[in-house]
Design brief:
CATH topology of the largest domain: Aconitase, domain 3
Shape: globular
Distance between the termini: 34 Å
Length: 748
């Protein structure tokens, strides 16, 4: 599987056996997604299979966790009482490094500030058999692509951009920490049988058009929820014009359309990448089993999108949502019309989406042209290498110096500004401004906690060109720049190698192997720590209907996991449930007053912060509910957005619709994610009402629950609420959480 794990092997033979069993049962051609997913079924002979309907019990090959989510995942695993993880697992330190002064200084500062957390993760990894990638090693998804992903793998990761591994032909799915605990405990993992959206690519990429433009175009077509419950499967002759890391970029940002994951078929570009990253033996094995690593001819897709790469133009999406797509040629005029700032304050390249050797090379090719004419960036410019291997290699090959010469600052090998880890100094909070990034998300306040920052996402080479020009009105395909000598010139479309001619430079060794004997390994969590807190079990369901639930907040409009549990400065509390609960829903807009973090306390009638009001209700024994809008919980896989409402006394979240990962996370923590049978019923509920949820004694799959709305004037209305619970998930609810249920089964 990986040279870090010499005793763990790829089981293409088992994949083939399971595929053959399912193929015989279904008697039809299979998509690539189906081959990999059904090839990992726990019981392929008897598993009920119906796309979009049944729940599959799967056996993933491995687990990956980033440091912000690994804290809670490992705390839950410790609570399970199990001695070792049952599948290969890794922890990656990438989320806790704040961009401030530059790579080395920021890394030293992070190691000092986060020493307690890093020590916990390192010792927990050593104790329970989990590989540990130290801070500075790089972003989890780049490390996975370089070392762990392979064609046909089923990998789950505690980060929503885990689908990045689909660029190497794997089914890589973002999950919450409780899901990871199930897999690490050796329990079959449940996933609703995904639908499959086919994206047929014809033509070939050329000029300024990049792999990023493919997913920006798809996001514009499907929107932020159009991929929910589906795997996006790319195929067609156009695939071969895209590099392996380019395919990873496309799969990575598939998270922004709500897709379960995205995947490309195995081809020579993947083989080339495997060979260059020291895995020629895996490439040779994949060649032998290639028929199982591509879709069958004539397979059926639930939806089919066709994109001609010859006609695709460079795109830029935003602001405030990643599905607002514009051709680069048009965004300037749209910005003028909408009143968005044209002046670009900062251009930022890198992130898990676009930090490959090819990405850095194409950006350097643009920068080199500007330097040849005596120009530097008009905007501030930052560069985030995806891994220590990428950093060392672009330093050796001169790309990093070119990007510095044009005015860039090379940041640490980490997530940095993409997730809000950015100590931004050039503006004041509330100042209207524009930034352009090669990241994946651009929700309000995500990068710098400033709600007035208009963030746009595009390819690294377009970011570089726009940072040089300094304005959204610049179109590098047609517009001219003025050199230092006063002469006008046009940037040529960038060209760069997808992989280095020489071998990759691995840089510093940042990996910690788990010891063979960990019997003497201690994992300490201080009872006075402000960063880490051992978990207490949540209370079991009392066997009764939920009577007179108070409405904590009725949310207006978009409510992502960033709104529910903000990142940025709050990341330091990801291992301490009580402390991080102080950010519960502070970004959500209250329909009652149009404000964030201001809700009415039903007892005192005073308005106050959401977390304080929730704590007041908990202290006074008042159970509460949240009312949400469409696609509630889109974005990150962070399970803190589910743990926090449970910890502070929440019992149900009722919305028009949910994002997949968040809905599962809520179920795992013993909450009730419910949806209006009639979405118009959202308008019947007012923040001052009380709700009673009936039918829990007869809680069953597919059976709606009844909700009685009690208005302050004494009148009542009854509505129906749908749910997607299966029998196993109903047991989680009754036990109080999935972890409680696991312990019950262990005791039995």
């Amino acid at each position: 599987m990986s040279h870090f794990e010499p005793n763990e092997y790829i089981r293409y033979d088992l994949l083939e056996k399971n595929i053959n069993i399912v193929r015989k049962r279904l008697n039809r051609p299979l998509t690539l997604s189906e081959k990999i997913v059904y090839g990992h079924l726990d019981d392929p002979a008897n598993q009920e299979i119906e796309r979009g309907k049944t729940y599959l019990r799967l056996r993933p090959d491995r687990v990956a966790m980033q440091d912000a989510t690994a804290q809670m995942a490992m705390l839950q695993f410790i609570s399970s009482g199990l001695p070792k993880v049952a599948v290969p697992s890794t922890i990656h330190c990438d989320h806790l490094i704040e961009a401030q002064l530059g790579g080395e200084k920021d890394l030293r500062r992070a190691k000092d500030i986060n020493q307690e957390v890093y020590n916990f993760l390192a010792t927990a990894g050593a104790k329970y058999g989990v590989g540990f990638w130290r801070p500075g090693s790089g972003i989890i998804h780049q490390i996975i692509l370089e070392n762990y992903s392979y064609p046909g793998v089923l990998l789950i990761g505690t980060d929503s951009h885990t689908p990045n591994g689909g660029g190497l032909g794997g089914i890589c799915i973002g999950v919450g920490g409780a899901d990871a605990v199930d897999v690490m405990a050796g329990i079959p993992w449940e996933l609703k049988c995904p639908k499959v959206i086919g994206v047929k690519l014809t033509g070939s990429l050329s000029g300024w058009t990049s792999p990023k433009d493919v997913i920006l175009k798809v996001a514009g077509i499907l929107t932020v929820k159009g991929g929910t419950g589906a795997i996006v499967e790319y195929h067609g002759p156009g695939v071969d014009s895209i590099s392996c890391t380019g395919m990873a970029t496309i799969c990575n940002m598939g998270a922004e359309i709500g897709a379960t994951t995205s995947v490309f078929p195995y081809n020579h570009r993947m083989k080339k990448y495997l060979n260059k990253t020291g895995r020629a033996d895996i490439a040779n094995l994949a060649d032998e089993f290639k028929d199982h690593l591509v879709p069958d001819p004539g397979c059926h897709y639930d939806q089919l999108i066709e994109i001609n790469l010859n006609e695709l133009k460079p795109h830029i999406n935003g602001p405030f949502t990643p599905d607002l797509a514009h051709p680069v040629a048009e965004v300037g005029s749209v910005a003028e019309k909408e009143g968005w700032p044209l002046d670009i304050r900062v251009g930022l390249i890198g992130s898990c989406t676009n930090s490959s050797y090819e990405d850095m090379g194409r950006s350097a090719a643009v920068a080199k042209q500007a330097l040849a004419h005596g120009l530097k960036c008009k905007s501030q410019f930052t560069i985030t290498p995806g891994s220590e291997q990428i950093r060392a290699t672009i330093e050796r090959d001169g790309y990093a110096q070119i990007l510095r010469d044009v005015g860039g600052i090379v940041l640490a090998n980490a997530c940095g500004p993409c997730i809000g880890q950015w100590d931004r100094k050039d503006i004041k909070k509330g100042e209207k401004n524009t930034i352009v990034t090669s990241y994946n998300r651009n929700f309000t306040g995500r990068n710098d906690a400033n709600p007035e920052t208009h963030a746009f996402v595009t390819s690294p080479e377009i970011v570089t060109a726009l940072a040089i020009a300094g304005t959204l009105k610049f179109n590098p395909e047609t517009d001219f720049l003025t050199g230092k000598d006063g002469k006008k010139f046009k940037l040529e479309a960038p060209d760069a190698d997808e992989l280095p001619h020489a071998e990759f430079d691995p840089g510093q060794d940042t990996y910690q192997h788990p010891p063979k004997d960990s019997s003497g390994q201690r994992v300490d969590v201080s009872p006075t720590s402000q960063r880490l807190q051992l978990l207490e079990p949540f209370d079991k369901w009392d066997g009764k209907d939920l009577e007179d639930l108070q409405i904590l907040i009725k949310v207006k409009g978009k409510c992502t996991t960033d709104h529910i549990s903000a990142a940025g400065p709050w990341l330091k509390f990801r291992g301490h449930l009580d402390n991080i609960s102080n950010n519960l829903l502070i970004g959500a807009i209250n329909v009652e007053n149009g404000k964030a973090n201001s809700v009415r306390n039903a007892v005192t009638q005073e308005f106050g912060p959401v977390p304080d009001t929730a704590r007041y209700y908990k202290e006074h024994g008042i159970r509460w509910v949240v009312i949400g809008d469409e696609n509630y919980g889109e974005g990150s896989s962070r399970e803190h957005a589910a743990l926090e409402p449970r910890h502070l006394g929440g019992r149900a979240i009722i919305t028009k619709s949910f994002a997949r990962i968040h809905e599962t996370n809520l179920k795992k923590q013993g909450l009730l994610p419910l949806t209006f049978t009639d979405p118009a019923d959202y308008n019947k509920i007012h923040p001052v009402d009380k709700l009673t949820i009936q039918g829990l004694k007869d809680f069953a799959p597919g059976k709606p629950l009844k909700c009685i709305i009690k208005h302050p004037n004494g009148t009542q209305e009854t509505i129906l609420l749908n749910h997607t619970f299966n029998e196993t998930q109903i047991e989680w609810f009754r036990a109080g959480s999935a972890l409680n249920r696991m312990k019950e089964l262990q005791q039995k």
